[in-house]
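[09:14] KT: can someone run the structure on this one? pasting the chain below
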Amino acid sequence: MVSPNINQEKPSVLVRGLEKIIILPKVVMKKVLCICKMSKEIAQDDPRKVIHSLKVGLAISLVSLFYYYQPLYENFGLSAMWAVMTVVVVFEYTVGATLGKGLNRTMATLAAGALGVGAHYLASLSGETGEPILIGFFVFLQAAIASFIRFFPKVKTRYDYGMLIFILTFSLISVSGFRDDEVVKMAHKRLSTIFLGGSACVMISIFVCPVWAGEELHYSIAQKLETLGDFLEAFVGEYFKTTKEEESKEKNSFLEGYKSILNAKSSEESLANFARWEPGHGKFKFRHPWSQYLKIGALSRQCAYRMEALKEQLNSDIKGLTEIRGTIQELCTEMCLESSMALKQLSLSIKTMTKKSSHDTHIANSKAAVKSLNSLLQSSLWKETDLLSVIPAVTVASLLIDVVGCTDEITDSVNVLATMINFDTLDDEKKTKEVSQSPTCECVKPNPMIENSHVVIITEDSMCDKCNKV
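[09:31] RB: done, structure tokens below
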């Protein structure tokens, strides 16, 4: 009775196997098309990634000449592989990351090579019996000390890779020198090939379509402020149902933008670390205040956390009475829109590195709205209302007040950054100051863009060269 069941199962297994073999080409083709589509999206999203890939290929091709060109191979031999390995390990997407890794690797190799040769020389003085003991002790000592130093916060941030290379190079030279008397020659070849490989990476990274970590941090911070402003503008329309259905679909993406800010701390710190390695370029001079960008980024995350709570209020089933929301609608709308415009003006100010006074006006308006809202919440209007129906609207109002406070702190930090970097003053503001401070006469046409241009204050008698009037 068992054998018929077995005979019935075998064909089904074979059939399933044949079906998988038949559809295998289609599955492979589907995955290939998926990879091609993903590659196209990445290339279109940031063409610099394609250029970076070509730069890495160019660097490895140039360094490989140490193997292909016979005279170079005769000088370096198999040590030329360290140049290729250096390019593979050191070449990074940004100039700062490449410079940091390159300098770490070069300096660590130089220091470890010198100490390794010295350790080999001291060990050789103790004779054949004591030499391996001393070499082993030196290797243990440097590995233990260097590994402990890696736990120091500043070392971990900027020199961790260099400490790893130091341990590796010292151990290789010390141990290899025990079996090879030409330890100095070996250390020289290793240092030379690493220097050549690192130099190729740095030169190509700087002079061929460079991607500066400082610029990436600069514009990413500005983009985060713009994202926060877009959220506030979209939120007020969604919460008070003032946005049209067509606009609502477009602004839904703005309500999700804050999520990219919440987890940006590690990337900002990495970019700031890499930016410190970079030389001065363009408007980013040497010793640029990158730490101030991190402060602005931290304040942006604090603001984004409030926005996450506001987003949850949109998704909540309990939103309170419509009448209560209508009571605070005008003031909350003013707070949102003024804060949104202030954040967008701050973003534009950072992008263009120009000073603007308009964001201060928006902050002042939002603060005035906050005072009015506090007075409204403390009035006797709410005493006759059910507490449970008031809580959702008051929660939103409280969060918006916190957002205004965060926006004010961001404004102060951006103003500090503008002072430290000496942002340029806009031409319109310069002209306004010049006209407002200089005396005018009848022959000078008033500027319609300047308020109260008809008011003239003459502090002392002066003669106009054009009309010969005082």
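[09:33] KT: thanks! Confidence is low (pLDDT under 50) at residues 430-470.
[09:34] RB: yep, looked fine to me
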